[in-house]
Amino acid sequence: MAGNGRRASKATGEALQWDGVKRGPDLPATRPDGKEWLPFTKKYYMDFRVSPQAVKLGTSLDWYSVIDLCILKDNFYHHPSAVAAAEIRARENEFGITPLARHALKWDAPSTDDLGAGDNRDVNKVSEQRMLDLRRQQLG
Fold first, then answer.
1. Which of these, 53, 107, 111, 120, has the minimum number of CB atoms within 10 Å of its CB?
2. What global pTM score does this model have?
């Protein structure tokens, strides 16, 4: 089948780069219901604060939205549901957390160094560790 004459699109916006500044407020000591945060949620929030995407957040209201996302994720790990998963995906798309979301926002992918959030972590090891952490959380 012949193509339509268009080439594959590529994000043409600015490249995301972390500038070395940790942004946003500290995560509250406890969840709104007074319970402890899961360790993974604390790490997720800290990683977001030092991510290239954090550079895009400009107001305290933006950060409240990130904290809301953390509440959703924390609740999801305690009580998984399709509705919660869909809401988490939608919010993560708004923040450009996935490659597809960055493409939709027309943000060019950060370089490998930028993904490491400044500490020279191996990106594949981070992904592997994240999956192991998720499995541990889900299985108890």
1. 120
2. 0.68
